[in-house]
Amino acid sequence: MAKFTVSDYLLLRLEQIGINHIFGVAGDYNMEFLDYIVHHNNIELIPACNELNASYAADGYGRINGVAALVTTFGVGELSAINGIAGAYAERVPVVAITGSPATTIQARGSLVHHTLGTGDFSIFARMYEQVTVAQAYLTAENATTEIDRVLGICLLKKLPVYISIPMDVAQHEVAAPSDSLKPPVFESERPTLAEAVDNCVSILEQASQPVILADIGVARYQLHEQLRKLLTATGYPYATMNMGKGLLEETHPQFIGIYNGAASEESVKKRIEQADCVLSIGALMTDFNTGKFSAKLDPSRTIEVHGEYVKVKHAVYNNVAMADMLSALSQRLQHRDPQTLNFKSATENLDTGFTTPFDAKSSAAITQQRFWHRFAHFLQENDIIVAETGTCLFGAAIAPLPKGATFIGQVLWGSIGYSVGALLGCCVAAPQRRSILLVGDGSFQMTGQELSTILRYNLKPIIFLINNDGYTIERDIHGERMPYNDIQPWKYHQLVEVFAGNGWGIKVSTEFELETALQRAEQNHDQLAFIEVVMDKMDSPEILLKMLQQ
């Protein structure tokens, strides 16, 4: 009978928490561990073109699956990936970052081996990871099983990345197989504090004449979408999301009024949020791109904040209160009100007519940002996954209403250019039964475009829209409209599918008629990857982006 090793133990625990794929890149300090992954029955290794892209893929996978894993080699590999792990930390995505490190005997001797700084200090890179992960484990033969369980539990509890260093010799060390499944810790509210917080919130909300719910990223990370839906059904309150919370529920929901982004919001949304006599804020993260460059005006004296592990009511803070418990209690206690009493219009009633009327493609008309997003909204289907790159794509897609079951992914806070291509790989692997759509600019694509090769390698079939606007348009909007650092070398992007020799097709479109033809082909052909290169003017930007930048 084959021995049961630390590698077996780690993989079993990863499987038990719902991980069936691990992204990464081989290196001579992690290959023994990779062998265990390759021979595992229920976990598949997905090698990426480089570690940075692998970390982006893990982030995308984690957003869809709830948790993800990444494996790199010591030093050169893990440092290539640290940007992506930092992004996962910033955006609250649970990722298990695993580094294969030199054997403990080598480390104890301080040997000057490759992939080190030549100082004999093997802790330097791990100390770097301490700044972008919530917990770390440095496995030894003695502590491996206990430490693995500890950090995986924290990863799930805090919804943040963790770091595991597994030396080559420890990876093959024999340990006892666990007798039971890993039971992730569950954050539990202090019942008296919860009761007091609920009483206070109910009193304030019941007295408010124009309450409104503002939901954001915290709902997604704690996977409380249905609890939010139940709260809306119970209360009848109107609700908005912020940019990072886009798509928590279908944006055709009768109580959805739109996206609140400070002064960059639609006027009706801005007025309803900022003039409400009570805003029930759930999981909001008040970042620059989430608040219209800090132009949001939420009066603390009229705001209730519900976060993952605490509640703030006006200026009072109730620690040790779980978001899930709070939403459940409010759903049971608050009285239902009808739309007439609350006096609001849903987002669908206020939509630009371009989103509500059939798109009439003009044969020779150049494709503009406004017209593209109107047509894109009609292209969307239920349960789509939309990955939007930070740039004109993110802000253009933000105004397109999402259908039921659709998931929107954008790196609004970290904003690492090129993130979306790797994230697309992770999303496709996590949910191959769903249609994944990438929206990426030409400049961003040049950062990480080689991951298209991996997507084709695994015969994944997303629809990719590459906006070719001849460089970094969002950067030109911010600064340096005519500066060379915002220019790029033109590529024949749509021909890359052929270059990478995969199951897909590519096309370049510059008129509305050509776009319409390509969209129809993409809708009819589900058995191949579609790559649609869309040519736009270099200074054409979504109106919402320009509005925000003016703040």
Structural features:
alpha/beta; 24 helices; seven-stranded mixed β-sheet; 551 residues
Note down, in words, how this protein is organized.
The structure is a single chain. The chain is an alpha/beta fold and 551 residues long. 39% of the residues lie in helices and 17% in strands. The chain has 24 helices and 19 strands. The strands form three sheets. Strands 9-8-7-10-11-12-13 form a seven-stranded mixed sheet, with helices on both faces. Helix 3 packs across helix 18. The longest helix has 17 residues, at 191-207. The protein starts with 5 loop residues before the first helix and ends with a helix. The mean pLDDT is 95.
Secondary structure: helix percent: 25-40%
Q: Tell me the structural class.
A: alpha/beta
Detail the poorly predicted runs.
Answer: none
Q: Compute the average pLDDT.
A: 95
Q: What is the number of helical segments per DSSP (H or I, 4+ residues)?
A: 24
Question: Shape, please?
Answer: globular
Count of distinct strands: 19
C-alpha end-to-end distance: 67 Å
**Strand percentage:** 15-25%
Strand order of the largest sheet: 9-8-7-10-11-12-13
Q: Give me the Rg, rounded.
A: 24 Å
Major sheet description:
7 strands, mixed
